[in-house]
Amino acid sequence: IYPCHQFVGQEKMKMGSVLTGEFHEDIRQMFVDCTLLDKPACRECWSKYFCSGGCAANAYLYNGDIHKPYSRTCEFLKKRSELALGIYAAEHEQ
Predict the structure, then answer these.
(1) For 39-49, b where at least 16 C-beta lie within 10 A, e where not — what string?
(2) Which residues contact 69 (CB under 8 A, 6 or more apart)?
(3) For residue 23, which phi and psi values (nearest 5 degrees)?
(4) Over the stretch 21-61, which tens digit does the pLDDT of each residue have?
(5) Would you list the DSSP string of 4-36?
(6) Contact (Cβ atoms closer than 8 angstroms) between residue 54 and residue 68
(7) DSSP 68
(8) CA angle (19, 24, 28) in 5-degree steps
(9) What phi and psi values does residue 12 have, to the nearest 5 degrees?
(10) Exposed, middle or buried: residue 3 (CB in 10 Å: 0-12, 13-18, 19+)?
(11) CA distances from 75 to 1, 64, 71, 78 (A)
């Protein structure tokens, strides 16, 4: 059992096994405790409610920590949100 398909093969993120009944509560709790406002980089970000803090698997892969969002993804999601809001505003101008 892994938190997400993108963690498959990351032994430190293996939560357990359906075959043995084993389950590591500490890994589950790590994800429970990783909310948007628990991520220092996200607290002050204007776009945090559009991306919800990004992908935990990318954060882990690139930074080794699910609490540190991958900066490239942040840049991409901010730009996408900015453009979407701009399009919305343009379409609703009077």
Answers:
(1) bebbeebebbe
(2) 39, 41, 42, 53, 54, 58, 59, 63
(3) -150, 130
(4) 999 999 999 999 999 898 999 999 999 998 889 999 999 99
(5) SGGGTT-GGG--B-TTT--B-HHHHHHHHT--G
(6) no
(7) S
(8) 115
(9) -65, -20
(10) buried
(11) 31, 19, 6, 5
pTM of the model: 0.81
Q: What is the CA radius of gyration of the chain?
A: 17
Structure-block tokens of residue 48: 């945090």
**CA triple 22-35-89, angle to 5 deg:** 135
